[in-house]
Write a structure and sequence with these properties.
seven-stranded mixed sheet, 15 strands, alpha/beta, elongated, eight-stranded mixed sheet, 30% helix, Class I SAM-dependent RNA methyltransferase, 392 residues, single chain
Amino acid sequence: MQVFHNKSKVIITCNKRLSPYLQDEVTALGYTIERAFATGVELNITLTECIKLNLNLRCASQILYSIKSFKAITPDDLYNEISAIEWEELIDFTGYFSVTSNVDNPNITTPLFANLKVKDAIVDRLKEKKGIRPNSGSDANKTVVHLYWKDAEADVFMDTSGETLAKHGYRKIPGKAPMLEALASGVIYATKWDKKSPFINPMCGSGTLAIEAALIATNRAPGLYRMNYGFMHIIGYNEEEFFAERRILKDQVIKNIELKIVASDLSEDAVEVTRRNAKTAGVDTLIDFQVCDFEVTPVPEGEAGVVVFNPEYGERLGVHSKLELTYKRMGDFMKKDCKGYTGYIFTGNPDLAKKIGLKASKKVEFYNGKLDCRLLEYELYDGSRRLPQTEN
């Protein structure tokens, strides 16, 4: 089956509000976007081309290659349509597969039932054609089939990613309440950081923002940290395509670079977690790790970089007085010690944001999980914004 060489509809998914940054990434790789929507983009490409996208995209979650689109009203319709697909040309009957879904259909009460129907249709087809029932379960580390079913419209995809692309593979120690790597990349893109000027990350936690900044600046793609994808378990996969793309990733890394990235935290454990994650990512030598209160984070003078906070949000209702003071101190620190920089605070608590004491020049919308968040931008002018009057 020439599935790797046939063009088809491909959906690249992402978390809500990351779509603009995903679009920029996809077009920068030379692909034409057919359609963009709130949680992803649609392309018309081959399964082989999905390999490059899987290895390069920072903001994506899954890359789904369409196998069949059809009408289905009832679960029996779904079973019959999926049974007609030549799964013996796609899935190794001695292997393992899992089923995921996005279902909104009035004739079923739970998506798990739809998953079961898909699994049964595939298993029954392979048993009929090959005489053996393949193993199936919930693990996404082998072949993954994805069902999209809304009302009477259905699409069956091969999930070419498998495990989510939103995790970039280097963070072996997550730390406390870590920011997802894909979200961190989107936040950095939103700051329009030039990848050359200082990047200051006080209250760094497990260091995701600082590490992602170093990866972006040195052109280290997520594919350097991962050796297993869904496309590897589809019949017809040529591993040379994968290794050829990986060689390109290695060659494009910028090795000799002068970069000032500072990651500080009051917690010695947090800084150690950041250091170890950065070492796994191969960027520990590019980051200045500091155990200190954020107010004494070293900020290079005379440069126009960015300073990015991702503080605790607290409860959305009922603001804690301790966090109120912390947010006020963040504002004071940026105003006093970060002149000439652009400041950013990522928060999911609008009440606490009012305590910063600075007027945001921009508010960029994000989600952290299901929490509605904002990236607040502050222009930290060195002196007055107004030009001085000319003396007579």
